[in-house]
Every structure is written in C-alpha cells, then in structure tokens.
C-alpha cells in the first residue's frame, strides 16, 4: 500500500514533468498492459487505426497494447463489454466509432450500453462524408443530383454503408435540409456501396473520403461534394455542401474510450499521450500516407462531441424511424 | 501490360529471402487451413502487423503464400477426419471422407493437392495476363446480378438432395431459415435474436459448419471406438496420383478452376460458394452421378481446384480496380496500403513493381504448395493411425477452440455445440448437412441482394429481366430446378419421337 502511494506520487510528479515534451517515459497508472477491445474483425478500418496509433502510444506511455477482437452487432458486442463488464482501472479501453457508437443503442432497445457508461479519451480520425457518382454518370455537379431528385422524388438511388451508419444519416440530413427525398439503398459497408456506384448500379454513393480517394483520383468515380467545413486539401476542386447552401457537416470518426469512472490520473495520462501523438510529425506523415484524416479531439471536448452527436442523431432517428423500411 | 514491370516483379520475388518467406508462409497457411475454425483471413490479419517491418516484396510474398496454403490446407482434415478445416473445404468432405474410409485417403489427398495446384496456377496466370480485362467485368455485378447468382447457387440443394429429396429440402430450408436470424439490412430491425446481441450479426456460418460436420463425426468415432479392429485405417495407397487419373480429371479441374476464378472475381462470393458450384458442375457433367457422395475422386478434385482458383480470382478486382474480391484480399489490400499504396486502378501502372511482385508471389506460392504440401500431407496422414477415441477428443477440442477464435466469443462455442447436437441427430436420421450449409452461406447473399434490387428497381420484379446477366443466370437456375424434377423426362418423350424419323 505504501509502495503504491509512493508510485502514485511519483507518477503525478512524472506527469507534471512530462508536460515538457522530452520526459515522456511516465509510468502509466493503469498497469503495464492495456487491453484494447475492438468491435470489428481484424484487418478492418479500426484495426488499421490501432496499428498506426498503438505502437507509438506504447512508446509514449511505456505499456503494451493488446488487441482483443470481438466483432458482432456493428461493434455493440465490444462496447457493451467495455461499458458493463470491463474493469475501470484504465487497463481496458476500446476503439469507439462515432456515430455508430450512439446510433447502435438509439436504434435498438436490445442494446443496453450508453455513452454515459464510458470515459471518452480522444477522437483520432474523422473521415468526411463525400458524394460520389460513376465516371459516366449524367450528374456532373451536385446541383444535377438535386435537380433529378426534385423532378422525381424518391427514385434517385443513393447507396450507403448500412442503416445506422454515418452515410445513412447524412442522406437523411441532406433530405431534411433540402426538402428532397432519395431512395436509400443500404450496402454491407462502404466498399460495396462505392463499387455499386462505380458500376452505375446506383445513381450515387454517400461514402467517406478515405474509402474512395484512390478511385476519385484515378477517375473511376466522380466526387460531387464533401460534407466538410472547408474544402479538403486532398480534393481542392470538390465543393463543400456548405458552399452549396446545405449546412451539413458529417463523417465517420474513430477514437478511444475507457469505461466510466477510471482513475483521473489514468485518464489524464491517456489524454496527454494522445496530445503528444498528435504533434508527432512522423505520425502525421504516416496518417496522410494512409489517407487518414487526423482530427484529434481529447478529453472533455471529445465528450462534448459525443454528447452533441447523440442528441442530434436521436432527433433524426425519432423523425424518420417510422418511415424506414416503409 | 508493361513487361518491364512484370520482370521487376519476378526479380523481386526470386531472392533467397523471399523464397524462404514463401515456403514459410505456405507452411503456416497449411497449418491454419487444416485447423477447423482458424481461417486464412484471421491468420492474414494477425500476420499483417509483423510484415510492416519487412520490405514490400517479402511481406506481400509471405501473405500471399499464406492465403494459398490455407486454401489447400482445409481439405486435409476434411478428407481424413470429415471436419472441414475451412468453410471452402466443406464440399470436399462429401467424397473425400468416404474415400478415406475406403483406405484411399492418400489418393484423395494427392488429387486434392494437385487440383489445388492447378487451380491456383491457372488463377495466377489469369491474374498475370488478364487482370485488367477481367477486372472491369466485376463492375457488371451489382445487387441484381448477385441475387441471380445466389438463386442459381440455391438450386444446388436440389441436386445434393440425393436419396431423399424431402430430407435434402428440409435441410436446405432450415439453413435458409436460420440465415434470416440477425439484423435486417434495410430496416436495422433485429430478427429472431431474442434480445441476444450476439445474434445481431446473424449466425456465423463457420460456427454452424464446425458444429454440423465435426461434432457428429467426433461423437460417431466415440460410439465406435470400443469396437476396435478398424481403429487404424492404414493408408495403403500412395500420395502421388497416377498420371492417368490426373489426365482423366483434367477437364474437371479446368472447368472447376474457371468457376473458381469467376466466383472469386465477384465481390460477395468466395471459396465457400465456388467449391459447391464446382462440385455441382462436376456431378452434372459426370457419366455416373450415383457415385458422388460415396467416394468419387472427381468430387474431391472439383471443389479443391475451385477454392484455390478463388485466390487469384479474388485478387483480380483487387489489383485491377482496388476493389477486394474477398475478405482475405481486403487484408492484402491493407498490406499494400501500409506500403503507401492507395487502393485504386493505378496498382498495375504506378505501383506496378509491387503489384507484380504480389502476382508472382501467388504463382510461386502454388509451386511451393506442391512441395511443402506433399511433405505436410504425408505427415498429417499419420493422424489416421491414432486410435479413434483420441481423435474424437482432439476434434472436439479443436471445435471449441475454433468456434471461440472466430469472434472471441463463448456464445459462439455454445451455438457450435447446439449445431453439433443437431448435426448428430441429422446424421442419425440420414439428413445430409450439406444443403443446410449452402442455405446458410447463400441465404444472406440472396436476401440482401433481393432487398437492394427491389429498392433499385422501385419495387418492380422487372429489374431482374433488365439485366442480361441476371436473366441468363435465372434461366439457368430454372433449368437446374427442372432438371431435378421429372419435367424433362416428360418433355423428352415427344422430342425423341419427333427426332427419330429425321
């Protein structure tokens, strides 16, 4: 007990010292090993993030990260485990994908966790939403697509990554903002949705920049608009929805959260580790190489981001849930 | 095709380091494939971070050879123990295990290895020569076409339901019914999940497969173990197939490889589907259909050639368009991304050196498979010398580990055991589990693509007739169903009468 108290003291001092960027080898209070619950299969987008982030985080914190994959129910199996059954000593965290994290339980009563049972640590990447059509599509601009939907409501087919995913909700947001109605076609993930657009099987796909960037660059897909605050440096010619008078900014984000009630020091150490990581030029370069759009939001700000999303998406779902599936 | 890039790729692969990695990868793949529940996808994902530190050629060679090795490895346990090591080896069980019981396990394994080699080699060559051409074909396959493929696949149930049509249809129907468990794609509503979130994503058919095939086999072995006598079913035949047999099977292998390449091409279908298609066609073209299911060597060659041909087939859209054709190639694409190569159609041009390295690695891995496979298979054959009681325990242990490893979920272990008990009842009642597996594999594909097609076609069934590919496939499906009924015999009678006078 005495030794532990001493160690706590030391870590607090160490944390204080580590504010200067050079002294980073602080002893993490959550233990020597951190389990990362992953809600999706190995090799997917969350895993790619883990492989980029965790080796570097491991150096900063001096701990080992162990991935535990528990795919199922679009992440809900792992997130239920995180919220309900994981020790809250800082030794277990999870990659949390928003808005999926919230839409899961907003849409299904059988999913019982909620974000109040979690400690948001940091968002790491946000992949902005994008509208893509096939290269030989008649729609040259986003206005063409709007005009088509206005002319024959409910027949322009828009692919999304699945009911409850970010693209599904983005489509609804756009419909509500413009007073339009699209035919929403869900696919099993972003990839199949983009492929269907490429083959002209659907009129457009609402997707994410990271998934389709290569295809847009090579001319297989044409980007009509992005759902971002500002034009993207990677796609400078593609207008934002905001420019077109539609105030919809959306995307799919991935970050890290712990169970509720983890020790304050642990939370603080994790947050600082992510802040250090965000400044690492090598990390930034690697992320860019992998078409990951860094959007590091830590601690209370990440909590605010999650709370805001939760109330937004709950409102959208309440307004459309009776129409889904006709 | 830029020939200099092709040669750079070849030169990249042919280093001592890489060849060692290819041999190692193949061996690892064989092992993973042979273990029920451990899949190529899983092993690729676990190996991926290790290859980050390798140079691109070495890393990709190792991953590709693992994929190739695992595609063959699944057949070893399927033939020797009646427990398919991978889902794509399920069709191999039907004739592979009876052959093994007749003391011809060596022959079956040898043919399986050679068929895998030819299938893999053919798909590798297709990959090298025709990738850009075949790649664009992928875009023709949307939900409408995928639905037609699934319907055609479902008709296989009819032809597998030999003996008793009713019990075959029962098994297939149950499979389709069970495949509806889980979240509905278009509404997000959980169906028949009883509030159990482990069922939201549906029943993982690998879990069902392990239960349906392996557990009943283990129980049967235990049942018979006290009888003694037949404990050591010695392998009396040789592993190397006779040239005559290979020559006889060649048309079958070529056809099955073709099926494998095409099914592999289409995103959403993979080795598990291709092997059943190939098995069905082998049976359709065979002169004596009655021998299938009782130890027909063609019934081993077909699915094995097809599931290895899927490897190259699935890589075609991956490298030609940046669209992964299967979950395993999705991970290979991830490996390319780590090397700073973004998925897209410029893989063959801008990043040609790395991409051609991958292609050559696939071809070389197939050659390595032949060498490593022979040694590995010879070793695994000794499994049959172990007393049945021990084998049964080992199978059950592997089943539990395998079912757990898929999703790291204890729930799946329980589900697997439930399927196991049901499978045991099925085997006692003489109901084949094969149609049920097909139902479980193709049910979700069929339902999802049907819902998508209906949305795209504004609720009109006409959407299926607007697509020429879908129309042809649906007509084939109709003919295939009619073939299983007496309809054709009635039709043939007046035809024969009319034809004779001419």
Q: Pairing-aware structural class of the strands and helices of chain B?
A: mainly alpha
Structural class of chain A: alpha/beta
Architecture per CATH nomenclature, i.e. the level-2 architecture of the largest domain in chain A:
3-Layer(aba) Sandwich
Please estimate the helix content of chain A. Answer: 40-55%
- Summarize model confidence as the mean pLDDT of chain A: 87
User: What fraction of residues of chain B sit in β-strands?
Assistant: under 5%
pLDDT averaged over residues of chain B: 85
Q: What is shown here, in short?
A:
Chain A is an alpha/beta fold. Helix content of chain A is 43%, strand content 21%.
Q: How would you characterize this protein structure?
A:
With 326 residues, chain A is an alpha/beta fold. Chain A has 11 helices and 10 strands. In chain A, strand 1, helix 2 and strand 2 form a beta-alpha-beta unit. In chain A, helix 2 packs across helix 9 (264-279) and helix 4 packs parallel to helix 11. The termini of chain A are far apart. Mean pLDDT of chain A is 87; it is low at 12-25. Chain B is mostly helical. Chain B has one domain. Chain B is built from 21 helices and 2 strands. In chain B, helix 2 (16-34) packs parallel to helix 4 and helix 11 packs across helix 12 (271-285). At the A-B interface, helix 2, helix 3, strand 6, helix 7 and helix 8 of A face helix 3, helix 14 and helix 18 of B.
Which labels suit this protein?
heterodimer, A: 326 residues, alpha/beta, D-Maltodextrin-Binding Protein, domain 2, 2 domains, 10-stranded mixed beta sheet, 11 helices, 21% strand, B: 502 residues, mainly alpha, two-stranded antiparallel ribbon, 21 helices, 2 strands
